[in-house]
User: Fold this.
Amino acid sequence: MSGRTDSDIQDDIRADMMDDQETEGRTPRDPVTDANPETDENPHPETDEDPGPDDEDGTEEARRARWAATGTGALLTLAGLAAALLRLTGSAPVLVPAAYALGAAVCAFAAVLGSRGRTRRALWLLIAGVMIMAVGDQSD
Assistant:
């Protein structure tokens, strides 16, 4: 054992690579990014996406996710309430419209969370709300 740490070895390897490239008459490249600091602006242009003025930090994607969670939650809430009202007027047991109403309430809560940016929690609550409605429908 030489007593050297791994970082010392990596520095030596990097220095050796730079020396080899310089002796071959080429400009040294950074082995980590494979970029030539003198000529290359981006070594992988296919992955270079210039963000637009509205999408610099993913704000447009976050806005779409919030709208999707809110819209889906509102739609499932209305569907659950309509099903609860239809089942309430029919001859179904009381558990069925109650399950639809509870599922609609969970979906409404998911819509509120989605509008506040908690889209992952909203997704899971939407799934739970639909499952509650499905279990209630199966008990008919």
